[in-house]
Amino acid sequence: MNIALWIITGLLTAIYLFSGFGKLFVPQEKMAQMGNAARWVLDFKPGTLKAIGALEILGAVGLILPALLGIAPILVPLAASSLTLLMTGAVIMRIRRGETIAALVDGSYLALAAFVAIGRFALEPFTG
Predict the structure, then answer these.
(1) What's the farthest any 2 CA atoms get from each other in the chain?
(2) What is the C-alpha to C-alpha distance for residues 104 and 61, in angstroms, rounded to an integer?
(3) CA nearest neighbour of 105 among 6, 25, 5, 35
(4) Average pLDDT, the chain
């Protein structure tokens, strides 16, 4: 279980770092041109996108850094729980926009983050 949680945590960390830095540094118009699934960015103000990107980066860092450093590892399941809430909002937004495939992808990220949260809170916590 511990190995599965680490693998999923690493995967989610990479996904959220990539996504978060994209939202912070790629202009909104350029992001919207990356495909149909990226047009949602036009529904938000640039500051909101940057805030979402910053939250994704903080969540990604919180998923892995506390456990690697052994400092406040309780932050790992808290970060996973926060990303679960963030992705709940993303799924709701995708459903409202009628983007079924994107909603399923975001839902899979939500499920993986929830698995890490439950795993690190109850199944395989870092502290006994």
Answers:
(1) 48
(2) 24
(3) 35
(4) 93
Q: How many helices (H) and strands (E) does the chain have?
A: 5, 0
- What are phi and psi for residue 71, nearest 5 degrees? -110, 115
Is residue 16 within 8 Å of 63, Cβ to Cβ? yes
For 25-81, write each residue's pLDDT tens digit.
999 889 888 888 788 898 899 999 999 999 999 999 999 999 999 898 899 999 999
Q: Are 91 and 40 in contact (CB under 8 A)?
A: no
d(CA 42, CA 26): 13
**69-112: pLDDT as tens digits:** 989 889 999 999 999 999 999 999 999 999 999 999 999 999 99
Contact by Cβ (8 Å): 50, 79: no
Alpha carbons within 13 A on the beta-carbon side of 86: 24
Which pLDDT score, from 0 to 100, does residue 34 have?
87
Residues 6 or more apart whose Cβ sits within 8 Å of residue 53: 19, 20, 21, 22, 23, 24
